[in-house]
Amino acid sequence: MNLTLKIWRQSNAKEQGKMVDYKIANVSPDMSFLEMLDVLNNELIEKGDDPVAFDHDCREGICGMCSLFINGEAHGPDRGITTCQLHMRKFKDGDTIYIEPFRAKAFPVIKDLVVDRTAFDKIQHAGGFISVNTSGNTQDANAIPVPKHDADRAFDAATCIGCGACVATCKNSSAMLFVSAKVSQFALLPQGKVEAADRVLNMVAEMDALGFGNCTNTGACEVECPKGISLENIARMNREYLKASLK
Amino acid sequence: MAKSALLKSSLAKKYWMALTGLFLCLFLVGHLAGNLQLIFGDASAFNEYALFMTTNPAVKVLSYVTYISILFHAIDGIVLTIQNKKARPIGYAKNNAAANSSFSSRNMAILGTLLLVFIVTHMANFWAKMHFAEMPLQKVEVKVEGQEPVLIYKTVQQQAIPVNAVEMGQLEVKGTQFFQPGTDLKVADGYKDLHKITVEFFKNEKTGLIATIAYVLAMVVLGFHLSHGFGSAFQSLGVNNPKYRGCIKGLSFIIAYVIPALFAIIPVYIHFFK
Amino acid sequence: MKLDSKIPQGPLDKKWSEYKNHIKLVNPANKRNIDVIVVGTGLAGGSAAATLAELGYNVKAFCYQDSPRRAHSIAAQGGINASKNYQGDGDSVYRLFYDTVKGGDYRAREANVYRLAEVSENIIDQCVAQGVPFAREYGGLLDNRSFGGVQVSRTFYAKGQTGQQLLLGAYSAMNRQIGRGKIQMYNRHEMLDIVLVDGKARGIIARNLINGEIERHSAHAVVICTGGYGNVFFLSTNAMGSNVTAAWKAHKRGAYFANPCYTQIHPTCIPVTGDHQSKLTLMSESLRNDGRIWVPAKMEDAVAIREGRLKPTQIAEEDRDYYLERRYPSFGNLVPRDVASRAAKERCDAGYGVNATGEAVYLDFASAIERYGKEQARIHHMDENDAKLVYKLGRDVVENKYGNLFQMYEKIVDEDPYTTPMMIYPAVHYTMGGLWVDYNLMSTIEGCYVLGEANFSDHGANRLGASALMQGLADGYFVLPYTIGDYLANDIRTGAIPTDLPEFDAAEKNVRGMIDHLISNNGTHSVDYFHKKLGKIMWDKVGMARNAKGLTEAMAEIAQLREEFYKDVKVSGTNESFNQELEKALRVADYLELGELFAKDALHREESCGGHFREEHQTEDGEAKRDDENFAYVAAWEYKGNPSEAVLHKEDLVYENIKLVTRSYK
C-alpha cells in the first residue's frame, strides 16, 4: 500500500506545531500501525530528518502508553483496541491518514504526538486508593465474601488502562470516564466503601482543578474506549458524588 | 467541602442542568395539555385555561420556577460551554465525531440557543401580550330560540354583558374589567381572547405561513434537544442503570418526539384547517 | 570477593521468621532522615516504594514511562500463585516451594524459594484489602485455577489481566504515598548510572527524558526493580522500552550478574510475519489446556501450506503429526514451557513449519470444539450427531473460555481461529537470570538491592507460570522492607548524602561522555538496525538450542557488532530534548555488552537445564541432560572491563530439603 500521512509536528511544548505531509510506500497490510510509523521513522533517520516522536511501550494493548488520534478518532477507526493493536489492513491503498496527538488543555504536547498525561496520575493521588497499609497484616482474603456480580463489575471498571482516549475523544475533554472507572471499582467493593465519600469528592475536585471539561453525556468516550469502560460508571460516580455532597 | 461541592463542581453544574431541564420537560407537558385545546376545545375553554394560567397563585409560583429554570438552564449551559471550549485550546485537524456520538449530543449548546431565541419570540408573541398588552376580550354569541343571536362578553362571573351595552356606554371597560361608568363599581371580569390572537397569528394572510413554518422548525429543534437532553438528565443524576434504561428510553421517546410533534401539529391545524 | 548468600541458619521453615526476629530496626523518627531510591515501578518496584514510604523512609521512585502504572508487569495475563489451599486440594507452603524448585530444574536457592512460598499467602490478603478485583465464585469467595507443571489449583486470577490488576493495586498504594509526599515520583526518567561512595550505593544519575537534563539523585540505598532483559533478542514479549540499562550499569560498578543465559522461551506466541515486526504477542499458556499442537506429517504438505496451495483444514487426521502427544504421551500438550518450545523448534528446523516463514506450528481447537459441543448436546438432550449443532455449541464453550484471546489473535493475524487453526511459535518471554543477590536481596554492591525479574534468585533455570507476579510482590511488599532496615540501621547518623561529591561528578561525566559520543557520531544506520542484528545473532546462536560452536561465534559477532555500533550508529536530534532515538541507543549499547556475557555464560554451562539447552548435552531422544555434579551452582559474573573477560564466581546450591531428580514428562 502507498499512503499519505498528515502528521502533527511540534518540536517541544513551547513551539507552535503544524501538520506535515509524508508519503510512505510499500506498507504491508499485516503491519501494525506503529510498525508503519517505525518504518517511516527509519526512513526519516536515514535521510537525516527528525523522526516522529510517539508514545508506545507494551505494544499489546494493555499498558495504555500509546495514544494517537487517527483519522479523527482516538486509537483509530477500529473498536475495542489501542493504537498499537490497530493494523494497516484497516486502511486502503492511496488513503490519506491524519495522525494527531490527544488534545486537551490538561494533556499538553511534549513533542510531536507525545502528550503529558500526568494529570491522570494527579487525580489518582487525590484518592484513587484504599487506605490500607501494605504490611500484609490484613484479614484473610476470604474473610469478606464479595458477590460475584459486584466483583465482576468492579473488575470491568478496573480494566481502564488510563490511556486518555476518553479525554481525547470527548468534545469537552472531560475525564469523567477515567475518574468514574476508579471511583466505581472501589465503590462496588466492600473494602472501598469506607472511604467512598471522601474519595469521590477529592478526585472530582482534583479533576476540575486540572482543567478537564465537563461531561455532557455524549457517550463518545464509551465508544472509543479500548477497554469498553461503560457509561454506567459515570452514572455511578454522579450518584456517589451526590450522596457524598449531601452527607 | 460538601456545600461547595453542590455549587461549584463540574458535577453540580450537571445536576442543576438536569433538574432544571427535567422541570422544563414537565412544564412542556402542562403547556401542551393547554395548547391542545386549540384543537380539541373551543375558544372559551382555551381562554379559561389562559386566564387560569395567568392568575392562579399556585400556577404563578410554578411559572416563576419555570422562568428561573429557563434562565438557570441557559446560563449554566453557557458557563459549561465556555469551560468546555477552554478545555481544548487547540482543536483537531480532522475529527470524525459522527463515528462515536449523536448529532444532538454534540450540539446541545446550539440547539439550546435556538430554543432560547424561540422562547423569547414566542413569549413576545403570546405571553407578553397576555400579560401586558391591551387585548380584545372574548365575545360569544348567545342564541335564544326565535330571536336574533346576541353578542355578549364572556365573563368569569357568568354575567351576560351584551356587547352593545358597552358600545352604548352603559358599561365601561378597564383592562379586562367592566365597571359602572364613572365609578369603581366592578360589574364583571372578561376574558382576554388569547384564542383569537393565536388563531389570527397563524392564519394571518401575510405572516401566518411563515409563523407556522418557524414554529414547526422550532419544534424540530426542541425534539433534537430533548432527544439527548431528557435521557442525559437521568445519567447526570446517576439514575442510569440497566434496570431503568428501558423505562428512560421509552419516556425519552415520548418527551423528545411525541410532545414536540403534538406541539407542531397545532399551528399546522390552525393554519390549514381552521 | 567470595559470595556470601547470608542464608540464616536453622530449619528451612523457621529461617525467615527467626531472621525477622533478630534483625536491626530503624525507629520511626530516624526513618524520616533516610532516603531510598527505587528504580522501576512494576510489581517489585511499585510495592517496594509504597511500603518503604509507608514505613517512613523518604522514597524517590523512577520510571521511564509516563506513569508508574505502565510498567510491563501490567502485561502479565494468567495469574498469581499462592499456597492458600482454599480449594482443599492438598496445597501447602512446602508444595509451592517444592514445585517452584523442581520447575526451576533445581537451580534456585532453597531458602529464598521457601520464603517466597511462605509470604505468598500474605500477598493475596494484601491485594484483596487494596481492592484488587480477583475472580470470585458465586458464593463470593475467591476462585482459583490450575497452571502448568503443578497438580493443585493455587492460581488466583483476574480474567486474563491479573498483572494489570496487581500492578494497579501497587500503583494505588504508591499514589497514597505520593499524595502524602512520602514518595517523590520521577516519571519519564531513566537511570543511566549508579553512584558508589566508599563502596556503598549512594545515588544514581538519571536522565530526564523530556528535556534531556542529567540529574543527580542521592540516597542511603538504591533499589533496582527494572525487570528482565529479554529485549536483547530484539523480538520478545517484553515492552519496547524494557531494558537492562540500570542492572547493567550496576553490574559495571561491581554487582555480579548471575546466570544471564537462563531465558524462558514461551511456546505460545503469535509468529513473526515479516521484517517490520517490532514485538511479539503472547497467547496465554491456558490455551494449551484445550488446543492440540501439530504440524503436517508429510514434507510435501508442509511445503504446500507454506506456498499457500493447501489449507490446514484440508489435511487429513492421519497426515497430521501431533508431536507433543507423540513424544510426551503422559503430559501431551501440557508439557512445561521449555519443553514445548524446543519441540516446536525441532519440527520447524526439520522443515515442517507452517507459515510463509516456516517458523510456526498449529494450535488447533477443532477437536476441543467438537468435544465440548457433543458434551453440551448430551447435557441439553440434543442430537449429538448433528455436526452443525455440535460445532455451534462447542464454539460457544470455547468462546466463553478464551474469547478475548481469540479476538486478539484475529485482530493481529486476520484469521478466524474458530475455523482455522491458530499459528504459534516460541518467543522470548522472561529472563530468570539477573543481578546476583543474597538472602537480603542485596547485590554485591553494598546498599544496592535488586528485586523482581531483575534479580536471579527464585526461579532457577525455568520459571513456572504465575510465579513471576508472586515473586515481584513478595520482594517488594514483604521481603525488602525487613531486610533493608537491617542495613539502613547503620545509616541513622549519616545525614543526607550530598550530590556534589567527586563520585557524582565522575559518574555524570561518564554518562555525558557516552551521550555526546552517540549524538555526535553521525553514522549511517539507525539504532534499530543494530538492535535487529544483535537480536538475530542471539536468536540464531544463543536461542532455544545452543552449542559451543554457535556460542563462540556469537561472542565474536556481538563484540564485532558492538564496535560497529559505536562507529556507525546514527542518533538524530540533541540530548537537550525529548529524543527517543537517544533513549534507544543508550539501551542497545548495554544490550550489546550483555549479549556477549549471555553467550559466555551459556558457553560455560556445559549442561542442559530448564531454559538453557545445550545440544551437546541431551539424551538420545533429544531431552535435556542436567549435570548436577558439576553445575549445581549459580554462575555470578564479575565485570572486568569487557564482557568476554568477566570473571566467574560460583555460589554452590545446597539442597538440604529436596532430593535432586531428573525432570521427565514422557
Provide keyphrases for this structure:
heterotrimer; B: 274 residues; mainly alpha; 3 helical TM bundles of succinate and fumarate reductases; three-stranded antiparallel beta sheet; 67% helix; 7% strand; C: alpha+beta; Flavocytochrome C3, Chain A, domain 1; Methane Monooxygenase Hydroxylase, Chain G, domain 1; five-stranded parallel beta sheet; five-stranded antiparallel beta sheet; globular
Commentary on this structure:
The complex is a heterotrimer of chains A (247), B (274) and C (666). Chain A is of the alpha+beta class. Chain A has helices spanning 33-47, 118-125, 148-158, 165-169, 176-187, 190-193, 196-209, 220-224, 232-246; strands at residues 3-9, 18-24, 69-70, 73-74, 96-100, 109-111, 114-115. Chain A contains 9 helices and 7 strands, in the order E-E-H-E-E-E-E-E-H-H-H-H-H-H-H-H. In chain A, the strands form 2 sheets. In chain A, strands 2-1-5-3-4 form a 5-stranded mixed sheet. In chain A, helix 3 (148-158) runs antiparallel to helix 5, helix 5 packs antiparallel against helix 7 (196-209) and helix 7 crosses helix 9 (232-246). In chain B, the strands form 2 sheets. Chain B has a 3-stranded antiparallel sheet with strand order 1-2-3. In chain B, strands 4-5-6 form a 3-stranded antiparallel sheet, with no helix packed on it. The radius of gyration of chain B is 23 Å and the shape is elongated. Chain C is of the alpha+beta class. In chain C, 39% of the residues lie in helices and 14% in strands. The two termini of chain C are 43 Å apart. The model of chain C has no long low-confidence stretch (mean pLDDT 95). Chains in contact: A-B, A-C.
Largest sheet of chain B: 3 strands, antiparallel
Distance between the termini of chain A: 60 Å
Order of helices and strands of chain B: HHHHHHHEEEHEEEHHH
Q: How many helix segments of chain A?
A: 9
Give the biggest sheet of chain A.
Answer: 5 strands, mixed
Integer-rounded radius of gyration of chain B = 23 Å
- Name the helicity range of chain A: 25-40%
Give the amount of beta strand of chain A, in percent. Answer: 5-15%
How would you state the average pLDDT of chain B, rounded? Answer: 92
Helix content of chain B: 55-70%
Second-tier CATH architecture of the largest domain in chain A: Orthogonal Bundle
Number of domains of chain B: 2
Shape of chain A: elongated
CATH third-level topology of the largest domain in chain A: Fumarate Reductase Iron-sulfur Protein, Chain B, domain 2
The succession of helices and strands of chain A, N to C, reads: EEHEEEEEHHHHHHHH
Strands ordered across the widest β-sheet of chain B: 1-2-3
Q: What is the tally of beta strands of chain B? A: 6
Keywords (chain C): Cell membrane, Electron transport, FAD, Flavoprotein, Membrane, Oxidoreductase, Transport
Family (chain C): Belongs to the FAD-dependent oxidoreductase 2 family. FRD/SDH subfamily.
Enzyme class (chain C): oxidoreductase
Membrane topology (chain C): Peripheral membrane protein
